[in-house]
Amino acid sequence: MDTQNPSAPTRAQSRIAGKNHLHRQARAGGIVHDNARHTTRFTVIGNHLAQHPELSGLAIGLAVHIQSLPAGARADIKTLAARFPEGTTRIAAALRELEAHGYLRRERQRTPAGRIVTRTISCNQPGRGPTQDHQEQPRKKRTPPAPKPLPAVPRPAYPAPPLLQTATDLLAGLRHHDPRLLLSERDTAHLAPGVAAWLERDVTPTAVRHALTTDLPTEPLCRPAAFLAHRLTTQLPPPPPFRAPAPPPPIRHPFQTCDGCDRPFRAPTPGRCRDCRTGPLEGA
After folding, report:
1. Angle 125-131-136 from CA coordinates, rounded to 5°
2. Which of 102, 79, 107 has the alpha carbon at shortest distance from 92?
3. 185-200 vs 224-234: helix crossing angle, rounded to 10
4. Tens digits of per-residue pLDDT, 111-126?
5. Are the C-beta atoms of residues 111 and 119 closer than 8 Å to each other?
6. C-alpha–C-alpha distance, residues 60 and 40, integer Å
């Protein structure tokens, strides 16, 4: 069995209640609103305009009329004076009222043909910024901010091409140790001299790779190239200690046969041995 709500009024009761409400308003005096809901050809007007305490009735009426016009319609003084009986002087004063309270803006613009025209902008709620019509205007393209420069890195004393290529290959392979160390071509070119400076100081590629990839921070690396540049600079090892060059090995000349005594001796070219060169025969 269905349950009925005895307190819910029927449609007939609702209509009777509405009429009774109008009668009560009429007996109390004042305005009686007999409103019908608009579904086409209507304009929403805020009470801040319809009940504005400082605007004249003509200014409020002109604002309502202008807000009801379609985009592109003319709303200059001459056109409004032809539409309403108040005349150009009173209409111009009313438009100045609307401008003073933010309901109207008039801007002078130059057309592509070079003419100067006045554009009327209607604001249905002052203080909310540009109208939608303004927002639809093409915006100027914003230039993206320039990338932050990377810190300087050490430079090798002799930047030989093979040394720089080894440094570049080392940097390109860092992403295999940590995906966060994926570097752009520009960043790699900037960091390569710093790696070359390490290699030039007798540090092996394996040792350089270990220094750059060990104890990485756990948080995301927003600028991995800047992080690597910092490590290359702050952890740069000192130059290797100076080592005096080893003396050249002694020269061992081949054996020669002495032309005087047939004895063998070492000399760069054939001839006499030392004894034969200094003996009596040499002096005779």
Report:
1. 160
2. 79
3. 10
4. 788 788 778 888 888 8
5. no
6. 22
User: Is the four-CA dihedral 97, 98, 99, 100 of positive or negative sign?
Assistant: positive
Instruction: Calculate the alpha carbon distances from 207 to 75, 203, 210, 238, 263 in Å.
Output: 78, 6, 5, 14, 59
Mean pLDDT, the chain, as a whole number? 82
pLDDT value, residue 5: 47
Is pLDDT at 79 greater than 70 in this prediction? yes
> In sequence order, which residues have a C-beta less than 8 Å from that of residue 256 and are 6 or more positions away?
264, 265, 266, 267, 269, 270, 271
H or E stretch at 226: helix 224-234
Q: Residue ranges per domain, the chain?
A: 47-132, 161-234
> For 35-61, what is the mean pLDDT?
87
**Structure token pair of residue 138:** 């093409």
Query: Which amino acid, 73?
Result: A
Q: Which fold has domain 47-132?
A: Arc Repressor Mutant, subunit A (1.10.10)
pTM score, whole prediction: 0.40
Q: Hunting for tokens 């801040």 — which residue is that? A: 48
pLDDT at 23: 57
Longest CA–CA span in the chain (Å) reads 167
